[in-house]
Amino acid sequence: MPRSTRGARSAGHDEIVAILGSEILSGSRPPGSRIPTAEELQERFGASRVLMREVTKTLVAKGLVAAKSRVGTHVLSPEYWNWFDPDVLAWRVRLGLDRQLFVHLGQLRRAVEPAAAAAAAEHRTADDIAAMRAALAGMERAGSDRRQFSAADLQFHIAVAAASGNPLFRSFTAVVETALGAYLSLSTPVDAAIMGESVRQHTRIADAIEEQDAGRAADRMREVIDVGLGRVVELG
């Protein structure tokens, strides 16, 4: 049983939600298990019963638990979890690199990002192209710095989504930004020659978008995603 924090600093709403959410995502609170009552959580965290009820409501909103009168609050199965919730993704990433999750993310990217690239080819502005070129320059400057390279890589994909003119494409990238950043870091090669080829592959996406060739932009984006997904699978 978790140790009581009575007499210690009271935890705040976001902190408690993060602790309980991480426990659920890690499997230490498996699907079907009961979440402690507000009184029991109050004992653990030193927070008020009102606050603990708000914590439960937040977990319900994130699809992690279900609360029913006279039954209590129970952990739901992963298929009910709101994976597009930035907190849920951030907790999952902090718990460790779950390669299965990243494979799923790669499959989702393959369904969404080529369409975003095609739309970007139709709607891009000079500022959009400049943002893509700036991200490419950042990838080149990164050299062998994997973290810096993946950060610039992420900025490139954000720039493409923004250029699409479709706020839903941009929202998709924004929502999964935390997991996408970790995914790109995991799929980023450490070999300088392969990193250089990755820059060239991304440059071909930018070129197609600038030339307003929607079909080619989608194809080049799909190729980049497939290469990254292949690296993740190999690492698994």
What does this molecule look like?
With 236 residues, the chain is mainly α. It has 2 domains: 13-80, Arc Repressor Mutant, subunit A, CATH 1.10.10.10; 97-235, Four Helix Bundle (Hemerythrin (Met), subunit A) (Up-down Bundle). The chain contains 11 helices and 3 strands, in the order αβααββαααααααα. It has helices spanning 13-26, 38-45, 49-61, 86-94, 99-123, 126-141, 146-163, 167-175, 177-187, 192-210, 214-235; strands spanning 34-35, 65-68, 72-75. Strands 1-3-2 form a 3-stranded antiparallel beta sheet, covered by helices on one side. Helix 5 (99-123) runs parallel beside helix 10 (192-210) and helix 6 (126-141) runs antiparallel to helix 7. The longest helix is centred in the middle third of the chain and has 25 residues, at 99-123.
Secondary structure topology:
Elements: H1 13-26, E1 34-35, H2 38-45, H3 49-61, E2 65-68, E3 72-75, H4 86-94, H5 99-123, H6 126-141, H7 146-163, H8 167-175, H9 177-187, H10 192-210, H11 214-235
Antiparallel strand pairs: 1-3, 2-3
Defining key terms:
4% strand, 11 helices, Arc Repressor Mutant, subunit A, 3 strands, 236 residues, mainly alpha, three-stranded antiparallel β-sheet, Four Helix Bundle (Hemerythrin (Met), subunit A), single chain, disordered N terminus, 69% helix
